[in-house]
Give the backbone structure.
Amino acid sequence: MAEITTGTVTANGLEFAYLAAGPEDGPLALCLHGFPDSAHTWRHLMPLLAGAGYRVVAPFMRGYAPTAVPEDGAYQGGALAADAVALHEVLGGGPDAVLIGHDWGAFATYGAAGHAPGRWRKVVALAVPPITAMVNTFLDYEQLKRSFYMFLFQTPLAEMALDRTFVEGLWRDWSPGYEASEDVGHVMDCLAAPANIAAAIGYYRAMLDPSRLVERYAAEEAATTGEWERPILYLHGADDGCLGADTVMRGGGPDAVLAFLPEGSRAEIVPGGGHFLHLDRPAEVGRLIMDWIAV
Protein backbone atom coordinates (compact mmCIF):
# COMPACT_ATOMS: atom_id res chain seq x y z
CA MET A 1 0.00 0.00 0.00
CA ALA A 2 1.50 3.31 -1.10
CA GLU A 3 2.02 5.89 1.62
CA ILE A 4 -0.25 8.93 1.32
CA THR A 5 1.44 12.17 2.33
CA THR A 6 0.31 15.79 2.59
CA GLY A 7 1.67 18.99 1.12
CA THR A 8 0.87 22.51 -0.05
CA VAL A 9 1.55 24.40 -3.23
CA THR A 10 0.56 27.79 -4.67
CA ALA A 11 -1.20 27.65 -8.03
CA ASN A 12 -3.37 30.21 -9.82
CA GLY A 13 -2.65 32.61 -6.96
CA LEU A 14 -4.16 30.26 -4.37
CA GLU A 15 -2.55 28.02 -1.75
CA PHE A 16 -3.71 24.45 -2.25
CA ALA A 17 -3.37 21.67 0.30
CA TYR A 18 -3.17 18.20 -1.17
CA LEU A 19 -2.73 14.49 -0.57
CA ALA A 20 -0.03 12.72 -2.58
CA ALA A 21 1.30 9.25 -3.27
CA GLY A 22 3.72 7.58 -5.63
CA PRO A 23 7.21 8.33 -6.94
CA GLU A 24 8.22 11.99 -7.19
CA ASP A 25 9.49 11.47 -10.74
CA GLY A 26 6.39 9.64 -11.99
CA PRO A 27 3.92 11.10 -14.47
CA LEU A 28 1.32 13.27 -12.77
CA ALA A 29 -2.14 11.91 -11.97
CA LEU A 30 -4.32 14.79 -10.78
CA CYS A 31 -7.51 13.74 -8.95
CA LEU A 32 -10.20 16.37 -8.33
CA HIS A 33 -13.04 15.93 -5.82
CA GLY A 34 -16.56 17.33 -5.76
CA PHE A 35 -19.31 18.24 -3.27
CA PRO A 36 -19.81 17.50 -0.44
CA ASP A 37 -16.49 15.73 -0.40
CA SER A 38 -12.75 16.03 0.11
CA ALA A 39 -9.44 14.87 -1.31
CA HIS A 40 -9.73 11.79 0.92
CA THR A 41 -12.36 10.46 -1.47
CA TRP A 42 -9.50 9.17 -3.65
CA ARG A 43 -7.95 6.98 -0.95
CA HIS A 44 -8.78 3.73 -2.80
CA LEU A 45 -7.65 4.90 -6.23
CA MET A 46 -4.45 6.65 -5.17
CA PRO A 47 -2.55 3.45 -4.22
CA LEU A 48 -3.50 1.86 -7.57
CA LEU A 49 -2.18 4.84 -9.51
CA ALA A 50 0.94 5.05 -7.34
CA GLY A 51 1.56 1.33 -7.83
CA ALA A 52 1.50 1.92 -11.59
CA GLY A 53 4.24 4.54 -11.21
CA TYR A 54 2.18 7.74 -11.14
CA ARG A 55 2.80 10.69 -8.88
CA VAL A 56 -0.77 11.08 -7.62
CA VAL A 57 -1.91 14.45 -6.29
CA ALA A 58 -5.41 15.00 -4.90
CA PRO A 59 -5.89 18.68 -4.00
CA PHE A 60 -8.56 20.05 -1.73
CA MET A 61 -10.55 22.20 -4.15
CA ARG A 62 -10.67 25.98 -3.85
CA GLY A 63 -12.40 27.08 -0.69
CA TYR A 64 -12.28 23.63 0.92
CA ALA A 65 -10.02 23.77 3.99
CA PRO A 66 -7.11 23.45 4.32
CA THR A 67 -6.96 24.98 0.80
CA ALA A 68 -7.43 28.75 0.93
CA VAL A 69 -10.65 30.61 0.19
CA PRO A 70 -10.08 32.61 -3.03
CA GLU A 71 -10.13 36.37 -2.64
CA ASP A 72 -11.71 36.82 -6.08
CA GLY A 73 -14.78 34.80 -5.03
CA ALA A 74 -14.66 32.83 -8.28
CA TYR A 75 -16.23 29.37 -8.14
CA GLN A 76 -17.37 28.83 -11.72
CA GLY A 77 -16.26 25.78 -13.68
CA GLY A 78 -13.75 27.89 -15.58
CA ALA A 79 -11.97 28.86 -12.35
CA LEU A 80 -11.76 25.20 -11.34
CA ALA A 81 -10.35 24.34 -14.76
CA ALA A 82 -7.78 27.11 -14.45
CA ASP A 83 -6.77 25.68 -11.07
CA ALA A 84 -6.23 22.25 -12.62
CA VAL A 85 -4.06 23.67 -15.39
CA ALA A 86 -2.07 25.74 -12.91
CA LEU A 87 -1.58 22.73 -10.63
CA HIS A 88 -0.32 20.72 -13.60
CA GLU A 89 2.22 23.47 -14.26
CA VAL A 90 3.49 23.98 -10.72
CA LEU A 91 3.64 20.25 -9.99
CA GLY A 92 5.84 19.68 -13.02
CA GLY A 93 3.31 17.71 -15.02
CA GLY A 94 4.09 16.75 -18.59
CA PRO A 95 2.03 15.70 -21.61
CA ASP A 96 1.83 12.23 -20.06
CA ALA A 97 -0.34 13.46 -17.16
CA VAL A 98 -3.67 11.87 -16.26
CA LEU A 99 -6.67 13.96 -15.17
CA ILE A 100 -9.51 12.43 -13.12
CA GLY A 101 -12.49 14.33 -11.72
CA HIS A 102 -15.66 13.51 -9.79
CA ASP A 103 -18.76 15.72 -9.50
CA TRP A 104 -17.48 19.34 -9.49
CA GLY A 105 -14.07 17.82 -10.21
CA ALA A 106 -15.63 16.48 -13.42
CA PHE A 107 -16.60 20.03 -14.43
CA ALA A 108 -13.01 21.08 -13.81
CA THR A 109 -11.80 18.10 -15.81
CA TYR A 110 -13.89 18.97 -18.85
CA GLY A 111 -12.66 22.56 -18.76
CA ALA A 112 -8.99 21.72 -18.24
CA ALA A 113 -9.06 19.01 -20.91
CA GLY A 114 -10.70 21.37 -23.37
CA HIS A 115 -8.59 24.42 -22.57
CA ALA A 116 -5.20 22.71 -22.41
CA PRO A 117 -5.47 19.33 -24.16
CA GLY A 118 -1.72 19.00 -24.63
CA ARG A 119 -1.19 18.66 -20.89
CA TRP A 120 -3.19 15.43 -20.48
CA ARG A 121 -2.63 11.98 -21.95
CA LYS A 122 -5.76 10.45 -20.43
CA VAL A 123 -8.98 11.98 -19.05
CA VAL A 124 -11.60 10.45 -16.74
CA ALA A 125 -14.86 11.97 -15.47
CA LEU A 126 -17.21 10.47 -12.88
CA ALA A 127 -20.85 11.09 -11.93
CA VAL A 128 -21.44 14.32 -13.91
CA PRO A 129 -21.56 14.20 -17.72
CA PRO A 130 -20.83 17.23 -19.92
CA ILE A 131 -23.33 20.02 -19.35
CA THR A 132 -24.43 19.67 -22.99
CA ALA A 133 -25.66 16.17 -22.14
CA MET A 134 -27.78 17.56 -19.31
CA VAL A 135 -29.63 20.38 -21.06
CA ASN A 136 -33.01 18.73 -20.53
CA THR A 137 -32.10 16.73 -17.44
CA PHE A 138 -33.31 19.27 -14.91
CA LEU A 139 -36.70 19.54 -16.60
CA ASP A 140 -37.38 15.97 -15.53
CA TYR A 141 -39.65 15.96 -12.46
CA GLU A 142 -37.78 13.21 -10.60
CA GLN A 143 -34.47 14.95 -11.21
CA LEU A 144 -35.90 18.27 -10.04
CA LYS A 145 -36.66 16.61 -6.71
CA ARG A 146 -33.14 15.21 -6.48
CA SER A 147 -31.68 18.64 -7.27
CA PHE A 148 -33.55 20.53 -4.53
CA TYR A 149 -30.27 21.49 -2.85
CA MET A 150 -29.12 23.49 -5.88
CA PHE A 151 -32.14 25.75 -5.54
CA LEU A 152 -31.85 25.92 -1.75
CA PHE A 153 -28.27 27.10 -2.22
CA GLN A 154 -29.49 30.15 -4.14
CA THR A 155 -31.22 31.43 -0.98
CA PRO A 156 -29.99 33.12 2.22
CA LEU A 157 -30.95 29.95 4.09
CA ALA A 158 -28.13 27.97 2.46
CA GLU A 159 -25.41 28.77 4.97
CA MET A 160 -27.61 27.76 7.87
CA ALA A 161 -28.75 24.55 6.17
CA LEU A 162 -25.31 23.21 5.27
CA ASP A 163 -24.43 21.42 8.51
CA ARG A 164 -23.38 17.87 9.34
CA THR A 165 -26.94 16.55 9.38
CA PHE A 166 -27.54 17.96 5.90
CA VAL A 167 -24.29 16.49 4.55
CA GLU A 168 -25.10 13.10 6.09
CA GLY A 169 -28.49 13.20 4.39
CA LEU A 170 -26.98 13.92 0.99
CA TRP A 171 -24.52 11.05 1.28
CA ARG A 172 -27.30 8.72 2.44
CA ASP A 173 -29.52 9.67 -0.50
CA TRP A 174 -26.79 9.85 -3.11
CA SER A 175 -24.99 6.58 -2.34
CA PRO A 176 -27.65 4.39 -0.71
CA GLY A 177 -26.27 1.78 1.67
CA TYR A 178 -22.77 3.25 1.84
CA GLU A 179 -21.33 3.85 5.32
CA ALA A 180 -20.23 7.48 4.95
CA SER A 181 -19.29 8.51 8.51
CA GLU A 182 -15.56 8.70 7.71
CA ASP A 183 -16.15 10.72 4.57
CA VAL A 184 -18.65 13.04 6.23
CA GLY A 185 -16.06 13.71 8.93
CA HIS A 186 -13.56 14.74 6.28
CA VAL A 187 -16.18 16.98 4.63
CA MET A 188 -16.94 18.76 7.88
CA ASP A 189 -13.21 19.37 8.41
CA CYS A 190 -13.18 21.04 4.99
CA LEU A 191 -16.22 23.16 5.93
CA ALA A 192 -14.78 24.12 9.30
CA ALA A 193 -15.36 27.88 8.99
CA PRO A 194 -18.24 30.00 7.66
CA ALA A 195 -16.03 31.12 4.77
CA ASN A 196 -15.54 27.50 3.71
CA ILE A 197 -19.28 26.84 3.85
CA ALA A 198 -19.91 29.95 1.76
CA ALA A 199 -17.29 28.75 -0.73
CA ALA A 200 -18.89 25.33 -1.18
CA ILE A 201 -22.26 27.00 -1.73
CA GLY A 202 -20.61 29.51 -4.06
CA TYR A 203 -20.01 26.82 -6.68
CA TYR A 204 -23.77 26.42 -7.05
CA ARG A 205 -24.51 30.13 -6.96
CA ALA A 206 -22.04 30.70 -9.80
CA MET A 207 -23.62 27.82 -11.70
CA LEU A 208 -27.07 29.45 -11.81
CA ASP A 209 -26.23 33.16 -11.55
CA PRO A 210 -24.33 34.58 -14.56
CA SER A 211 -23.54 37.77 -12.61
CA ARG A 212 -21.14 35.73 -10.48
CA LEU A 213 -19.00 34.66 -13.43
CA VAL A 214 -15.53 36.22 -13.40
CA GLU A 215 -14.41 37.38 -16.84
CA ARG A 216 -10.83 36.32 -16.16
CA TYR A 217 -11.90 32.70 -16.59
CA ALA A 218 -14.02 33.17 -19.73
CA ALA A 219 -11.81 30.99 -21.95
CA GLU A 220 -11.72 28.12 -19.45
CA GLU A 221 -15.46 28.50 -18.88
CA ALA A 222 -16.13 28.12 -22.59
CA ALA A 223 -13.93 25.02 -22.65
CA THR A 224 -16.15 23.26 -20.10
CA THR A 225 -18.85 22.93 -22.77
CA GLY A 226 -16.71 22.95 -25.90
CA GLU A 227 -15.23 20.21 -28.04
CA TRP A 228 -12.46 18.03 -26.63
CA GLU A 229 -9.47 16.58 -28.41
CA ARG A 230 -8.74 13.88 -25.86
CA PRO A 231 -11.10 10.89 -25.54
CA ILE A 232 -12.79 10.71 -22.14
CA LEU A 233 -13.74 7.76 -19.96
CA TYR A 234 -17.08 8.54 -18.33
CA LEU A 235 -18.37 6.48 -15.39
CA HIS A 236 -21.78 6.75 -13.70
CA GLY A 237 -23.25 4.75 -10.83
CA ALA A 238 -26.37 2.76 -11.61
CA ASP A 239 -27.81 3.72 -8.21
CA ASP A 240 -26.77 7.37 -8.22
CA GLY A 241 -29.26 9.26 -6.06
CA CYS A 242 -27.95 12.71 -6.99
CA LEU A 243 -28.04 12.57 -10.77
CA GLY A 244 -30.12 9.57 -11.74
CA ALA A 245 -28.62 7.22 -14.29
CA ASP A 246 -32.05 6.88 -15.90
CA THR A 247 -32.21 10.63 -16.40
CA VAL A 248 -28.63 11.04 -17.63
CA MET A 249 -28.88 8.18 -20.07
CA ARG A 250 -32.47 9.06 -21.08
CA GLY A 251 -33.21 5.37 -21.62
CA GLY A 252 -30.43 5.05 -24.19
CA GLY A 253 -27.71 3.57 -22.00
CA PRO A 254 -24.10 4.75 -22.15
CA ASP A 255 -24.46 5.73 -25.83
CA ALA A 256 -26.65 8.64 -24.73
CA VAL A 257 -23.60 10.22 -23.05
CA LEU A 258 -21.12 9.08 -25.70
CA ALA A 259 -22.96 11.24 -28.22
CA PHE A 260 -21.60 14.30 -26.35
CA LEU A 261 -18.03 13.03 -25.93
CA PRO A 262 -15.16 13.04 -28.45
CA GLU A 263 -14.44 10.12 -30.74
CA GLY A 264 -12.71 7.26 -28.99
CA SER A 265 -14.40 7.95 -25.64
CA ARG A 266 -16.02 5.29 -23.47
CA ALA A 267 -18.99 5.44 -21.11
CA GLU A 268 -19.89 2.83 -18.50
CA ILE A 269 -22.67 2.35 -15.96
CA VAL A 270 -21.25 0.81 -12.77
CA PRO A 271 -23.72 -1.66 -11.21
CA GLY A 272 -24.29 -1.02 -7.51
CA GLY A 273 -22.52 2.32 -7.68
CA GLY A 274 -24.09 5.41 -6.18
CA HIS A 275 -23.02 8.99 -6.75
CA PHE A 276 -19.75 8.27 -4.95
CA LEU A 277 -19.18 5.22 -7.12
CA HIS A 278 -15.41 5.22 -6.60
CA LEU A 279 -16.17 4.59 -2.91
CA ASP A 280 -19.20 2.33 -3.41
CA ARG A 281 -17.41 0.09 -5.90
CA PRO A 282 -13.70 0.89 -5.57
CA ALA A 283 -12.45 -2.34 -7.17
CA GLU A 284 -14.63 -2.05 -10.27
CA VAL A 285 -14.06 1.67 -10.73
CA GLY A 286 -10.34 1.24 -10.11
CA ARG A 287 -10.15 -1.50 -12.73
CA LEU A 288 -11.99 0.57 -15.32
CA ILE A 289 -9.75 3.59 -14.74
CA MET A 290 -6.51 1.62 -14.70
CA ASP A 291 -7.48 -0.19 -17.91
CA TRP A 292 -8.28 3.15 -19.56
CA ILE A 293 -5.01 4.85 -18.68
CA ALA A 294 -2.89 1.77 -19.46
CA VAL A 295 -3.23 2.19 -23.22
Notes: The CA atoms of residues 163 and 188 lie 8 Å apart. DSSP finds 14 helices and eight strands in the chain. Residues 194-208 form the longest helix (15 residues). The mean pLDDT is 95.
